[in-house]
Amino acid sequence: MRRSILLLRPLVLVPLMLICLITAVVYCAAYWYRPAENRTYQSPYLRNITSGFVRTQRFRIHYTRSGTGPAIILVHGAGSWLYSFRNNVPGLAQNFTVYTLDMPGHGYTIPLAAGPSYDLDTMSGALEEFMDALGIDRADIVGHSSGGGWAIHFTHNHPERVRGLVLIDSNGLDHPVSLIFKLFTYPVIGELFSKFFTTEDVRRGLLDAFFNKELVTREMVCEIKTPLTFIENRRAQYLGIRNQDWKITQRELPRIAAPTLVIWGENDRYLSHSMAERFRDIMPDAFAEVLENCGHSAHEERPEKVNAMITAFLTGQTR
Fold first, then answer.
1. Do 27 and 62 have their domain in common?
2. ∠ CA(109), CA(112), CA(114), 5° rounding?
3. Would residue 39 count as lying in a domain?
4. Cα–Cα distance between 190 and 179 in angstroms, integer?
5. Is 25 part of a structural domain of the chain?
6. Which domain holds residue 241?
7. Are strands 139-144 and 260-265 parallel, antiparallel or unpaired?
8. Which CATH number is 65's domain given?
C-alpha cells in the first residue's frame, strides 16, 4: 500500500508543479514584463501640424491650437489621441479657436506623478487643469466615445466653464459592455491584453469602428497603435475600463444644463445608435441626430457633415 502511494506521488506532484510554473509565468508576464515601446515611429500627422506641450500639476499635456474665435475643445475617446480629429480641426478653425489634447494615458501626454487611476475624476480634472494652464475660462466641449463621458463628468462638475456640449457616439450611459471590454476588468487578464495586443488587433478594432472599411489605412493603424505601445498608456487601457463608472455619468445627465448636440452613426458596432435617443430624453436641453451609413467614429467617417452640424449648433443656427 505504501509503495502504491509513493508511486502515485509523482503523478500528483508533476501536474501541480506544472500548474504553479504556468501561473508564475503568467503572473510575471502580467505584472513585470515590460514590452518595447515604439519610440522610433515618426508620425506623418505630427510632421504636418504644429503641436506643443503644456505643463499642469499632474501632467505634461500634448495639444494643438488652431483658428480664432470662441474656444472649442475636442476630446478623443479611449485608445485614441488627438489624431482622431485631424479632419475636423481645419473646418472648425474657420469659426472657433480649436484645441485638441491627448488625454491622460493617451497619445503623447506624460504623467508627472506615479500611479494615476484614470477614473472619471482624473480625466475631468485633467480638462480643468488644461483650461487653467492655457487661460481658457469657458469653452464648448466636443467628446467622442469615452471622451464624451469624460466631457459629461467635467460639465457636471464645472457647469460654469461649458457653453455647449457635443457628444459623438458617446459613453456616459450605464449599459452592458462587450466581452472583450469585460475581460479588461479582471486582474491579470487586462494586464496581459494590454501588453500582448498586435497590429492586427488594432486594425480589427478600427475596422469595427467604421462603416466604410476603406477609410482604415495602414497609416491610420500605425498612428493609433504607436502611442498604445507606451508603457503608461498600456496601463491606462485596463485601468480606465476598470475605474470609469458610467453609472456616475448617467446619474449626472439630468443635471446637465448646457445645450447638448448628440451625433451618432447608425451603424455603430460599439454603442447602439438607440443610445442617442436615451441621451436626448434624459438630458434637459439635448438634440440628437443619427447619420446613415456611418459607424462609431462619425467625426472621422463624415467629417464635413459633422463639422457643419457642430458649427451650426454651437453658433445658434440650429437651436
1. no
2. 110
3. no
4. 12
5. yes
6. 44-314
7. unpaired
8. 3.40.50.1820
Residues 20-75 pLDDT 10s = 656 565 556 666 678 888 889 999 999 999 999 999 999 999 999 999 999 999 99
Do 2 and 60 share a structural domain? no
Q: pLDDT tens across 64-97, in order?
A: 999 999 999 999 999 999 999 999 999 999 999 9
Exposed e or buried b per residue across 226-254, where buried means at least 16 C-beta atoms within 10 angstroms of its C-beta: bbbbbebbbbbbbbbbbbbebebbbebbe
In a domain, 319, yes or no: no
- Assess whether 107 and 208 both reside in one domain: yes
pLDDT per position as a tens digit, 199-240: 999 999 999 999 999 999 999 999 999 999 999 999 999 999
Cell of 269: 458596432
Residue 79: HSE in the Cβ half-sphere, 13 Å Cα cutoff:
18
45's enclosing H/E stretch is helix 44-47
**Phi, psi of 97, rounded to the nearest 5 degrees:** -85, 110
Q: Is the CB of residue 137 less than 8 Å from the CB of residue 130?
A: no
286 bridge partner residues: 260
Enter the DSSP assignment of 298: H
Residue 193: closest CA among 10, 24, 35, 25: 35
Cα gap 242→237, rounded to integer Å: 9
Contact partners, residue 304, CB within 8 Å, separation at least 6: 91
Based on the number of CB atoms within 10 Å of its own CB, is 134 exposed (0-12), middle (13-18) or buried (19 or more)? middle
- Beta-strand relationship, 52-55 and 97-101: unpaired
Whether 104 is covered by a domain: the verdict is yes
| Dist CA 298 CA 62 (whole Å) | 24
Give the predicted TM-score (pTM) of the model. Answer: 0.93
For residue 203, what are the contacts with CB-CB under 8 A and spacing of at least 6?
216, 221
Instruction: Report which of 58, 140, 65, 146 is spatially closest to residue 100, judged by C-alpha positions.
Output: 65
Residues 158 and 14 in one domain: no
**How far is the CA of 280 from the CAs of 85, 140, 315, in angstroms?**
24, 18, 20
Do 53 and 133 form a contact (C-beta atoms < 8 A)? Answer: no
CA distance 120 to 130: 15
